[in-house]
Design goal:
This protein is α/β, with parallel strands linked by helices. It has helices at residues 3-15, 23-29, 39-43, 61-72, 78-93, 141-146, 153-164, 192-201, 214-224, 237-247, 262-267, 279-284, 295-308; strands at 18-20, 34-38, 49-55, 116-122, 126-131, 134-139, 168-174, 177-185, 205-209, 228-230, 252-256, 270-274, 287-289. The chain is elongated and about 70 Å long. The structure holds adenosine-5'-diphosphate and magnesium ion.
Length: 312
């Protein structure tokens, strides 16, 4: 393609809110044979909400929710935001005489939380902190089991039911006792299934990669029409998935939004960041989708194919 054709294509992309960082990226996109989608915030809306909350070990549900929210208040994770929001509403609903307000800083999430110290985030697993001298753990099975928490059969059954229904199940422990289970939903983007179908028609193989557990991942993938799933992938592992495909000779595009995704976006032949996503992801990518609409993944590949098809 001539420099003029590349300029025109870049302009057409910009009109769709598809920012293309250079002619090389534009050229590579035509050869893409695999598109790897991150799940949370990429295929899904990234707007999580708590749908289920149950206390265990005879604990009061309100107390458990306050503990979990206090532990998650320091986390930036989308799941954490959903948990704090839910805890906030439950807290004030249970105390009708208390004013549902904001503090001087306009922060509605302070004032009711317990003091948490020694906060640690474990990427891809959960968080830990100390509250009232006890260790609070919030996260997935692996995090709790590695910390010697026994998961009672009723809690495990609840987790399985949630996960089969596309929810992410979150476990809560105080020291080594399981005290709660939360179910969190994050709906698919409206266009997600149509885009997956469209890619298949273009001869492009869609894959979903996620740090979430296998059961939830499979249920979500089924809903969106993706057969090839990689789950329980630690943040560093997403780039390994891409390198393995490249070693087989595939040209790989990665679509992602999170800090977790930036090594994979950089490793991919074509890194595509969701516009509203993390700055680090946007920096690591070759394409930025400003409209946060997955249809523009197809726009990007189409544009490259049309620009370079004639000169192959
Ligand atoms: P994804 O790849 O889908 O964006 P992550 O790698 O961020 O997922 O997280 C993987 C899993 O680790 C989550 O599904 C959840 O079970 C657990 N997790 C991560 N961060 C948190 C947190 N702040 N609170 C609770 N659980 C968490
Ligand atoms: Mg994500």
């Amino acid at each position: 393609a001539t420099p003029t054709a590349v300029m025109v294509a870049t302009g057409v992309g910009a009109n769709h809110g598809v920012l293309i960082k250079g002619g090389d990226a534009l050229e590579r996109a035509q050869k893409v044979s695999y598109v790897i989608f991150d799940k949370t915030g990429t295929l899904t809306q990234g707007k999580a909400s708590v749908t289920t909350a149950k206390a265990f070990s005879g604990r009061d549900l309100g107390d458990v929710l306050t503990l979990v929210a206090s532990a998650e208040a320091s986390s930036e994770h989308p799941l954490a935001k959903a948990i704090v929001e839910y805890g906030y509403h439950c807290h004030f609903l249970s105390q009708p005489n208390k004013e549902v307000g904001r503090d001087a800083g306009g922060n509605k999430f302070s004032g009711w939380l317990l003091e948490a110290t020694d906060f640690t985030a474990f990427p891809g697993r959960g968080v830990q902190c100390l509250i009232n001298g006890k260790r609070i753990l919030v996260g997935n099975r692996r995090l709790l089991v590695d910390n010697n928490v026994t998961i009672p059969i009723e809690a495990e059954n609840l987790m399985v039911g949630l996960e089969e229904g596309t929810r992410t199940g979150i476990l809560v422990a105080e020291d080594e006792t399981l005290i709660g289970v939360l179910g969190i939903t994050d709906p698919l983007k409206r266009e997600a299934a149509v885009v997956v179908e469209g890619l298949k028609k273009m001869g492009v193989h869609p894959v979903m990669v996620t740090g979430d557990n296998w059961r939830t991942a499979r249920a979500v993938a089924k809903e969106v029409g993706i057969e090839d799933v990689r789950a329980e992938v630690m943040p560093a592992g997403k780039a390994d998935v891409i390198r393995a495909l490249q070693e087989e000779g595939c040209v790989v595009a990665m679509v992602g939004d999170g800090i977790n995704d930036s090594p994979a976006l950089a490793a991919a032949d074509v890194g595509i960041a969701i516009g509203g996503g993390t700055d680090i992801a946007v920096e690591a990518a070759d394409y930025v989708l400003m409209r946060n609409n997955l249809e523009d993944v197809i726009t990007a590949i189409d544009l490259s194919r049309k620009t370079f098809a004639r000169i192959r």
